[in-house]
């Protein structure tokens, strides 16, 4: 289940791309399939161990181009262990809402991104997230949980303040918001609730089969109750340099 739209955020073979806060690795795996040189970065060692195993399995199964590369790195988003201007692109998906000092994390993303490089930042959308917080305190007070609810305007303003040029956005996962509302209403850890189980089966079926009916429904629901909002941006090219932004930047505007 991808949140970033790879028609907007185009990836070329050999691009050096950071998946910051990769979690279970869903975007890192897609980047690897597309031939990128991927760094899957996270603080959770257990998550990274699973990502590392999947990278190996993908290589053995022949799912990735010969020249693609992937590695996992554990560390702190506030002190990224990479040199300045190192990456061609960065994905930060569903991670900034977990970080108390989010603007420091954004400054680190700007630092390690090359001039002209692209960023895709995704966070929970304001309305679906506000409903979840209202229904369940456990949803956002658990250790490592969400510490803020972004509006798109706030996310864009913080990225601009950090130094990014922002252009283009969309919402995703409109079918998923009701599932989380159900979970929050019956108990986030109550996986045995019949309604939650039934809706989860629907989501799994949708992910596996992608039928026309659910694709249409999601397209209609995304602008209204899409669970995530995705904002695209670039690191400006320094005045007086010969670097030019990648052509893909235009697709994100």
Task: Describe the fold and architecture.
Residues 18-120 form the Methyltransferase type domain. Its EC number is 2.1.1.-. InterPro entries: Methyltransf_11 (IPR013216), SAM-dependent_MTases_sf (IPR029063). The chain is globular, with a radius of gyration of 18 Å. Strands 3-2-1-4-5-7-6 form a seven-stranded mixed β-sheet, with helices on both faces. The chain has 253 residues and is of the alpha/beta class. The chain has two domains: 16-126 and 144-173 and 226-252, Rossmann fold, CATH 3.40.50.150; 174-225, no CATH class. Helices cover 40% and strands 20% of the residues. The protein starts with 15 loop residues before the first strand and ends in a 19-residue tail after the last strand. Strand 4, helix 3 and strand 5 (113-124) form a beta-alpha-beta unit.
